[in-house]
Amino acid sequence: MLTNAKPVCFVLAADLAKARSFYTDTLSLTETGEDPFAVSYDLAGTTLRLTKVEGHQPNPHTVLGWQVADIEAEIDALIAKGVAFAVYEGFGQDARGIWTHPGSGAKIAWFHDPEGNNLSLTQFGG
């Protein structure tokens, strides 16, 4: 039924202007539209709707992530734009916040948008 339907992702924000600045300027995402409720972005063919929700409280788990080819280079680029990466106590991350899966070798790093939404970068493989 939904096999051929394109997904749409939603990230919520109480302060849409502040969140928009982060997604547009800091993450360099391409805006594709806006309406009174949301700003839309193209994420490699998938639509992201950054949606205004009064009183939004962030989910403590990852709401959106990107698969990247070189996680260290992406981290460097985001740090240069002021992004701080999360280091979780007892999680076994390196000093830059990268956790490496002990089996697959996948590398993951987490960061937050201005609304506190948990975002991630993942580099699959060893």
Topology:
Elements: E1 8-13, H1 16-26, E2 30-35, E3 38-43, E4 46-52, E5 62-67, H2 71-80, E6 99-100, E7 107-112, E8 118-123
Parallel strand pairs: 1-4, 5-8
Antiparallel strand pairs: 2-3, 3-4, 6-7, 7-8
CATH topology term: 2,3-Dihydroxybiphenyl 1,2-Dioxygenase, domain 1
Number of helices: 2
Instruction: Quickly count the domains.
Output: 1
The CATH superfamily is known as 2,3-Dihydroxybiphenyl 1,2-Dioxygenase, domain 1
Mean pLDDT: 95
Structural class: alpha/beta
Report what the structure shows.
This protein is of the alpha/beta class. The chain is 17% helix and 36% strand. It is built from two helices and eight strands; from the N terminus they run E-H-E-E-E-E-H-E-E-E. It has helices at residues 16-26, 71-80, and strands at residues 8-13, 30-35, 38-43, 46-52, 62-67, 99-100, 107-112, 118-123. The protein has a four-stranded mixed beta sheet, covered by helices on one side. It has a four-stranded mixed beta sheet with strand order 5-8-7-6, covered by helices on one side. Strand 3 and strand 4 (46-52) form a beta hairpin.
Give a short summary of the structure:
This protein is α/β, with parallel strands linked by helices and 126 residues long. It is built from two helices and eight strands.
Based on the model shown, name its key terms.
126 residues; alpha/beta; 2,3-Dihydroxybiphenyl 1,2-Dioxygenase, domain 1; 4-stranded mixed β-sheet; 17% helix; globular
